[in-house]
Amino acid sequence: MPINKTILAKKLDFLNENLAKIENMDFAEDEFVGQADIHDLLTFRLQQSVETCIDVAVHVIAELNLPRKETAKDAFLLLGEQNIISRDLSLRMGRAADFRNRVVHGYNDFDFRLLFRDYHDDVNDLRIFGSQILDFLEKNK
Predict the structure, then answer these.
(1) Looking at residue 96, what DSSP letter applies?
(2) Nearest to 90 by CA among 44, 136, 48
(3) Where are the domains of the chain?
(4) Cβ atoms of residues 50 and 44 within 8 Å
(5) Where are the beta strands (DSSP E) in the chain?
(6) Where does 5-140 sit in CATH, by number?
(7) Within 13 Å and on the Cβ side, how many CA atoms surround 10?
(8) What's the rounded Cα separation, in Å, for the pair 94 and 125?
(9) Coiled coil located at which positions (predicted)?
(10) DSSP secondary structure letter of residue 12
(11) Cα(17)–Cα(28) distance, integer angstroms
(12) Which residues, 6 or more positions from 80, have their beta carbon under 8 angstroms from its beta carbon?
């Protein structure tokens, strides 16, 4: 069964738009840590971006009739095992899924200084994920 590229294109467009919004945010570390509205907005946009990547991963797995995974982290790991994305990226995306779970389930133990220091790398990983999915789709027309 061929992968529905129209659905994936819409999801990846949303991902790229959201990542651009994150990249356009401008704040200093103390401002980020001290103002809940700023770190809440960044956290929400990162959550949306990770959830979009999860949707893409699950869609690819379903369309390729790969074994269904119970967790988002395992879905990313499966994409790595299947060489759809790199194994290294699959591990980083698994950590992104862990981040998403902490946000969604309301864990209040965020170190916002650490989030500030890491979010640029996180955005880069999400962009790489989108790029590797597009590469896979191009190779498997």
Answers:
(1) H
(2) 136
(3) 5-140
(4) no
(5) none
(6) 1.20.120.580
(7) 5
(8) 11
(9) none
(10) H
(11) 22
(12) 86, 87, 88, 89, 90, 91
